[in-house]
Design brief:
single chain, alpha/beta, seven-stranded parallel beta sheet, six-stranded parallel beta sheet, 16 helices, globular, binds uridine-diphosphate-N-acetylglucosamine, binds uridine-5'-diphosphate
Length: 360
């Protein structure tokens, strides 16, 4: 039975990598369908190269456009490939437009859908990701919930319990598989003249933060204040969306170390040695929690409440003062908490469930 793995963005490549590796090693009947939502080398190919993933059999090169145009073009492109390849199941991961398009194209053709990282909710429908997650979950035949909390959410929405499996999050697999490699790899801290525990790491790319000039400016002012207060550098590997908006709004943060997005092993090094991480990324909230590094989330809500409950994370919103205050709060806390996202065997479990159901 043929398996289609649909992906399109940086986090999907990273979080699907453990699963793809199992299928590759098992010589399973599968193919990768890349939507091309991310396409710059540092947002895309670098991860295939570094994580030794097979080259996607299909890349429909959709690129960047509006929500509807991007999703619509993906649907058309994915459908053509599904009609040709006739997979028994399509696997998608997360909450991007590529995920929704993959799930919808499959479901309309009667192809089964497996959603990795099902059941996350921010309860904020202004986020494109929230709509993508909800719709994908309700289109899916297999819902791989990372935690029991996510499972509860799905059952609460009336999804049949036989479709829901608590597997852990494949991000743990990705971190465990690559952390030692990262430590042995090129010394990113040295290259950036950073000392372990003596810098902050920032990522910021979410539409609601960076597409709004006053909100983006307020966040950047908060970050600059942190550099002054702690006399420590802030490293910000900047997402292309944020770079574009920073230029468009003519925002010129003075004392931040802004660098290009980095590869996964370099980013793991930067994360694991940071004093504290500030982010609006979903994956980075999880990774900081897994790595034992305190996190300040620059958002009003999170679909990763497990990180808040563990004591690893705090929601700061976008006010400069509150961001600075939250850094102080997190630095005073004990740095030990349990990892709520699983044991690093999520991909194994997912493959087993799919295989036992007769797929793959
Ligand atoms: C997308 C996802 C978001 C996810 C993020 C991961 C949706 C709705 N959003 O947001 O959930 O957290 O990916 O990083 O699916 N660009 C480049 N090169 C690239 C990709 C993008 O320059 O390789 C620039 C383009 O100017 C583009 C902008 O970034 O317009 C936004 O890209 P897009 O894929 O639409 O959304 P992301 O912000 O990346
Ligand atoms: N990441 C990376 N290089 C960077 C920034 C992030 O490899 O410069 C990785 C990070 O380790 C995590 C993933 O990208 O696994 C998160 O992706 P992103 O923040 O773009 O998306 P989100 O998780 O918010 O959907």
């Amino acid at each position: 039975m043929k398996i289609a793995v649909v992906l399109g963005t940086r986090p999907e490549i990273i979080k699907m990598a453990p699963l793809i590796k199992i299928y590759k090693n098992n010589r399973a009947d599968f193919f990768l369908l890349h939507t091309g939502q991310h396409y710059t080398y540092q947002m895309d190919k670098v991860f295939f190269d570094q994580l030794e993933l097979p080259h996607p059999q299909y890349n429909i090169d959709i690129g960047s456009s509006s929500q509807a145009e991007q999703t619509g073009k993906m649907l058309i492109g994915i459908e053509k490939i599904f009609l040709k390849e006739k997979p028994a199941i399509a696997l998608v991961e997360g909450d991007t437009n590529s995920v929704l398009a993959g799930a919808l194209a499959a479901a309309k053709l009667g192809i089964q859908v497996g959603h990795v990282e099902a059941g996350l909710r921010s309860y904020d429908r202004t986020m494109p990701e929230e709509l993508n997650r909800m719709l994908t979950d309700h289109l899916s035949d297999y819902l791989f919930a990372p935690t029991s909390k996510a499972k509860k959410i799905l059952l609460g929405e009336g999804i049949n319990k036989n479709k829901v499996f608590v597997t852990g999050n494949t991000v743990v697999d990705a971190v465990f598989q690559n952390l030692e490699l990262a430590k042995k790899g090129k010394d990113v801290l040295k290259a950036l003249k950073l000392k372990p525990g003596q810098y902050f790491l920032v990522t910021l790319h979410r539409q609601e933060n960076v597409d709004n000039p006053s909100r983006f400016d307020s966040i950047l002012r908060g970050l600059s204040q942190i550099v002054i207060d702690y006399n420590l550098p802030i490293v910000y590997p900047i997402h292309p969306r944020s770079r574009k908006m920073m230029d468009e709004f003519r925002l010129r943060p003075k004392n931040l170390t802004i660098i290009e997005p980095v590869d996964f092993l370099s980013f793991l090094q930067l994360e694991s040695s940071a004093k504290l991480i500030l982010t609006d990324s979903g994956g980075v909230q999880e990774e900081s929690c897994i790595l034992g590094v305190p996190c300040v989330t620059i958002r009003d809500n999170t679909e990763r409440p497990e990180t808040l409950e563990a004591g690893a994370n705090i929601l700061a919103g976008s006010s400069s003062e509150r961001i600075v205050e939250c850094v102080g709060i997190m630095l005073k806390k004990k740095k030990k908490w349990p990892n709520p996202f699983g044991d690093g065997k999520a991909a194994e479990r997912i493959v087993k469930i799919i295989t036992e159901a007769g797929n793959g």
